[in-house]
Input
Amino acid sequence: MSAMTECPETTGEFTEVERTVINRLQTGLPLVHLPYKAVADELGISEQVLLHTLQNLLDRRILTRFGPMFHAGEMGGGLTLAAMRIPEQDFENVTAKVNEFDEVAHNYRREHELNMWFVVATEAPDDIARVIAGIESSTGYPVYNMPKEEEFHVHLHFPV
Amino acid sequence: MTASPSPEYLTVVPEVAGVGPVSAWGLLRLRQQLERGLPLTPRPYQALAELTGLSEQEVMAAIRQWQDQGLIKRFGLVVRHRTLGYTANAMVVWDIPDDQVQNLGRTLARAPFVTLCYQRPRRLPDWPYNLFCMIHGVDRQRVLSQLATLIADQGLEQTPHAVLFSTKAYRQRGGCYVSHD
Output
């Protein structure tokens, strides 16, 4: 998920193999010496086709990446969700200022009085306060900091 | 302030690895390599071993331990869900009495279309909501009808809530488990 001004919303048209691979590999790769072979056998395709399909999906930027997703908060870093209330005429300007902070990982406009929502991820937990203070002073608007207090387990899955 | 990470991930239990103490530098390099993605080669753990100075066995043991510890949440495809057609993404927020938020959080997380569910602090008076769920959908009407089902099933008709659809993504980046939309 590299930084970008807006995500291309190319609604995917996928081949049957791509569909199968996308759906299967959202649920994990086995920890065996030949993991791609194991999944390919399960799906009834060759290892080479599986690897080629993955590379192709990455090249087309359908996938962000292939591999483990680390839980930033649990790895010793800081992580929070923050919101701001930005007047319409200032929205673009403030967006640019907020996105100048490397620690801002996602920034979405949402339909609410609090209309700007972003994730702040830092190397150390103490850095969150510094980044939020920096955003407030750079933009002149207050930041509502809403760190996670409890996470309820879900099965994150996006079937195609 | 400089980073002083609690290096839980830099200690891999030797008994788990079935080997001697695992090099902390190797583990740090392994984490850095993994954040770039798993090599697309038939023996990816062996390839990572060569890049980090660990053995293939140590690489696999470290990954297994990080999964067990919850440091790795998912291991596989990290999808750019918008490119998969998931563009109707609602953050549904609820104002729940504090003594009920745990129960309801667990209940809502079980709904098949709820993709994230967190308790977060209220920011009164502007923000009274303390339970946040994401519903990712391919169209807005379907998301709203899923939400209506959830409200009816759980008897939440009287529970204050708000639905915040995202209308534009200005930045999506990561490599960490921080996806919110």
Observations:
- The two ends of chain B are 30 Å apart (CA to CA).
